[in-house]
Design goal:
With 626 residues, the protein is an alpha+beta fold. The chain folds into 4 domains: 5-225, 2-Layer Sandwich (Heat Shock Protein 90), CATH 3.30.565; 232-361, Ribosomal Protein S5, domain 2 (2-Layer Sandwich); 398-490, Rossmann fold (3-Layer(aba) Sandwich), CATH 3.40.50; 501-546 and 554-625, Four Helix Bundle (Hemerythrin (Met), subunit A). 37% of the residues lie in helices and 19% in strands. It has 21 helices and 22 strands. The strands form 4 sheets. Strands 1-6-5-4-7-3-2-8-9 form a 9-stranded mixed β-sheet, with helices on one face. Helix 1 (12-24) crosses helix 6, helix 11 crosses helix 16 (461-468) and helix 20 packs across helix 21. The longest helix has 23 residues, at 31-53. The chain is elongated. It binds adenosine-5'-diphosphate.
C-alpha cells in the first residue's frame, strides 16, 4: 500500500457529472447537505450492521451520531460521522468512479438546458459529488472501522479532473467531509442557516445530528434533529413535508414522490413499511440488473439496501423501507429467500402498492403522471403476477379509438361503460405505432359500427393481451385474427352468400397467391380498404412474430389469410381483369399493400417495386388491356 501522496484522475463519467451537476443544480444547491448527511447516516447504519457480527468494530465508541461543524472565518463546513469509514481502495472507488451501469449513456442525454438536465440528474440521484455545487475544494478524511489509525486516508479535490489521496493518521473511526465553500457561498458557514436546513432536510435521520460553530465563543454542539427514524413514528405525528424529505433521503431523488403509504402490521408477523411511488422513473428502470428493492431494517437496525425480495419485479420503481420485528438480525439475501414469512410479507406489500395505485387512479391527472412514467412496467405485472390480475387489470390504461390521439388514458371500465349491451368482446389491435394502429384496415368495420378498439403499441402488449385474456367476463379479441365476430353484424357479406362471380374471383386469386397465402376469403372487417391479411387462429399474431424474429428466433413460416373487401372498386376492377398476367400481378399488389398497411415487411420488396412499376406502365407481360 502506497502511503505517498498520489494524484488520480476521475473516471470520465464523474468528470462529466460534476460539470453538469454544478451547472444544472445551482438553483437547488442546498441539497448537498441532505446528500452528505444521508451518506453519514448510511455509514452509521452500516457500522451498526457490521458490528452485529463483530462488536469490536464499534466498541471504542458506541454512540453513533453525525456532527456538522461550521467555521465562518475559514468559510468551511464539515460533516463528520463515526460510521463505517472507508479504506484507501474503497475511497478511490467510491469517490472517483460511478458504479451505476448505464451512466455513460445516461449522461449523453444531457442537453445543456438547465431545467431538462436538472430533471435528469434527479432521476439519476445526486450524491457526494453535489458538494461541488457550493465548494471549490472538498477534503475527506476517513478511517475504516477496525483499521489501524495509520491506515486512515485523506482525499482532496477541486472537483475538476482529478483528486489526490494520501495516508494519514486518524484517531477516530469514520469520516469527515470538509467543504471549502466558494466565495459567494459563505451562507453555508452560518449556523442559523445550517440549522434550518438540517431541520428541513434531515430531521428524520435516525441518528442525532449536532451542529457546532467552531469560531464562536461557545463552540458547544447542540443536537438539532429529532433523531427518531421516521417510520417508527406514528402516522399522525409525521407531516407531509417530513414524508417527502424522507423520500429524498432514501432515493437521492430531489423531486417529490407521487404518493406514499406508511403502515404498521401487528399480529403474527410484525413489521412497519413505508412505501413511496416516485414522481419520475429512474434512469436505469429498464436495466434488469439495476439495484432495486426496499431498504431492510430488523428491529430498527439497518440490514441491507435494495432488498428485492419484498416486491415483485414489476413493482421495481417502488422505494421505501421495511422494518421487521421477526426476521433474524443475521438475515442475508439467501436466508431471506428461504424465509417462510417472506412470501406472506411480499404479497401483503404488493397489495399495498396496488391499493396505493388504485387511490392515485381516483384522480385522472395524477394517475396519468404515474402511467406515463411507470405504465409499461406495471403491464409486466399481468404476465408476472396472475394472482393480482384483477387488480392490475383495473389499473391499466390504453389508447383507444375513442380518443383522437395516442394518449393512454382509457381504462377497461371506461371501455365497457361505452360498449353497447350486446357487445360480448373487448377488441384490440396490436401494432408497432399508433399511426399504424389507427389507420389499420382491420378495424375499419368495427369503427364504422361505433365499436371501440384498444390500440396496443407497447412491446409488451401482445403478452399483456394474452395474459389478460378476459375482463369482467368479456373476452379480449385480436382484430387481426381469422375469426372475428363483429357485434350487430349483418350477414350480407357472409362468404356463403357470395355470388358465383365473386366465388370464382376468390378462387382465382387464391390460385395466383397460393405460394404466399393460406386462403383468400371475403372480409367482414373492411370498409375503405380493398384487403387485409389476418392470422389463422393457431398462428402467432404478426406483431408477435415480428418481435420474435427481430430477437433472432427462427419461426416456421406461416401463411396468412388474405381477406378481400368484395365491394371495393379495386376488387371490382380485379374481377373485370381478363389478362391473366395482369390479374396475377394485381393480386400480388393487393396482398403486398395489405401487408404494408399492417406494418409488416414485404418478403421481397424489389419484386414488389418491379411489379408495381410494370403495372403502372401497363407493360406487364406486354399485355395492354385498354
Ligand atoms: P450513493 O450514496 O448514492 O452511493 P455517493 O456518491 O453519495 O453515492 O457515495 C458513493 C459511495 O461513497 C457511497 O455508496 C459510500 O459507499 C461511500 N461514502 C460516501 N460518504 C460516505 C461516508 N460518510 N462514510 C462512508 N462511506 C461513504
Amino acid at each position: 500500500m502506497s502511503k505517498q501522496r498520489e494524484t488520480l484522475g476521475f473516471q470520465t463519467e464523474v468528470r462529466q457529472l460534476l460539470q453538469l451537476m454544478i451547472h444544472s443544480l445551482y438553483s437547488n444547491k442546498e441539497i448537498f447537505l441532505r446528500e452528505l448527511i444521508s451518506n453519514a447516516s448510511d455509514a452509521a447504519d452500516k457500522l451498526r450492521f457490521e458490528a452485529l457480527a463483530n462488536p469490536d468494530l464499534s466498541a471504542d465508541d458506541t454512540d453513533l451520531g453525525i456532527s456538522i461543524e461550521v467555521n465562518k472565518a475559514e468559510r468551511t463546513l464539515s460533516v463528520v460521522d463515526n460510521g463505517i469509514g472507508m479504506s484507501r481502495d474503497e475511497l478511490i472507488d467510491n469517490l472517483g468512479t460511478i458504479a451505476k451501469s448505464g451512466t455513460a449513456e445516461f449522461l449523453q442525454q444531457m442537453t445543456g438546458d438547465k431545467q431538462h438536465d436538472a430533471h435528469l440528474i434527479g432521476q439519476f440521484g445526486v450524491g457526494f459529488y453535489s458538494a461541488f455545487i457550493v465548494a471549490d475544494k472538498v477534503s475527506v478524511q476517513t478511517r475504516r472501522a477496525g483499521a489501524d489509525a495509520d491506515a486512515a486516508v485523506h482525499w482532496e479535490s477541486a472537483g475538476e479532473g482529478e483528486f489526490t489521496i494520501e495516508n494519514i493518521e486518524r484517531e477516530e473511526r469514520g469520516t469527515r467531509v470538509t467543504l471549502h465553500l466558494k466565495d459567494d457561498e459563505s451562507e453555508f458557514a452560518e449556523s442559523p442557516r445550517i440549522e434550518s436546513l438540517i431541520r428541513k432536510y434531515s430531521d428524520h435521520i435516525g441518528f442525532p445530528v449536532s451542529l457546532s460553530a467552531i469560531d464562536e465563543e461557545s463552540a458547544e454542539a447542540k443536537i438539532v434533529n429529532s433523531a427518531t427514524a421516521l417510520w417508527t413514528r406514528s402516522r399522525s405525528e409525521v407531516t407531509e413535508d417530513e414524508y417527502k424529505e424522507f423520500y429524498k433521503h432514501l432515493s437521492h431523488d430531489f423531486a417529490d414522490p407521487l404518493t406514499w403509504s406508511h403502515n404498521r402490521v401487528e399480529g403474527k408477523r410484525e413489521y412497519t413499511s413505508l412505501l413511496y411511488i416516485p414522481g419520475a422513473a429512474p434512469f436505469d428502470m429498464w436495466n434488469r440488473e439495476a439495484p432495486r428493492g426496499l431498504k431492510l431494517y430488523v428491529q430498527r437496525v439497518f440490514i441491507m439496501d435494495d432488498a428485492e425480495q419484498f416486491l415483485p419485479l414489476y413493482l421495481r420503481f417502488v422505494k421505501g423501507v421495511v422494518d421487521s420485528s421477526d426476521l433474524p438480525l443475521n438475515v442475508s439475501r439467501e436466508l431471506l429467500q428461504q424465509n417462510p414469512d417472506l412470501t406472506a410479507m411480499r404479497s401483503a406489500l404488493t397489495r399495498r402498492v396496488l391499493d396505493m395505485l388504485k387511490k392515485i387512479a381516483a384522480d385522472k391527472e395524477d394517475y396519468q403522471k404515474f402511467w406515463g412514467e411507470f405504465g409499461q412496467v406495471l403491464k409486466e405485472g399481468l404476465v408476472e403476477d396472475s394472482g393480482n390480475k384483477d387488480k392490475l387489470a383495473k389499473l391499466l390504461r390504453f389508447a383507444t379509438t375513442h380518443n383522437d390521439n395516442d394518449t393512454q388514458d382509457q381504462s377497461l371500465d371506461d371501455y365497457l361503460q361505452r360498449a353497447k349491451d350486446e357487445q360480448q368482446k373487448i377488441y384490440y389491435i396490436l401494432a408497432e405505432t399508433y399511426a399504424t394502429a389507427i389507420a389499420s384496415p382491420h378495424i375499419e368495420q368495427l369503427r364504422s359500427r361505433g365499436v371501440e378498439v384498444l390500440l396496443l403499441t407497447d412491446r409488451i402488449d401482445a403478452w399483456l393481451a394474452e395474459s389478460l385474456a378476459e375482463y369482467e367476463g368479456k373476452t379480449l379479441v385480436d382484430v387481426a385474427r381469422e375469426a372475428l365476430d363483429i357485434p350487430d353484424e349483418g350477414d350480407e357479406k357472409a362468404q356463403d352468400e357470395l355470388d358465383d362471380k365473386q366465388k370464382s374471383l376468390l378462387q382465382k386469386m387464391q390460385g395466383k397467391l397460393s405460394e404466399r397465402v393460406e386462403s383468400v376469403t371475403a372480409s367482414r372487417r373492411l370498409v375503405d380498404s380493398p384487403a387485409c391479411v389476418v392470422a389463422s387462429e393457431q398462428d402467432l399474431n404478426p406483431q408477435v412474430r415480428r418481435m420474435l424474429e427481430a430477437s433472432g428466433q427462427e419461426l416456421p413460416a406461416a401463411k396468412p389469410i388474405l381477406e378481400i373487401n368484395i365491394g371495393h372498386p379495386l376488387v371490382t376492377r380485379l374481377s373485370g381483369e381478363t389478362d391473366d398476367g395482369r390479374f396475377g400481378a394485381l393480386s400480388n399488389i393487393v396482398l403486398d399493400h395489405a401487408l404494408l398497411a399492417e406494418g409488416s415487411q414485404l418478403p421481397n420488396p424489389a419484386e414488389y417495386v418491379q411489379r408495381m412499376n410494370e403495372f403502372l406502365l401497363g407493360t406487364d407481360n406486354g399485355a395492354d388491356n385498354e
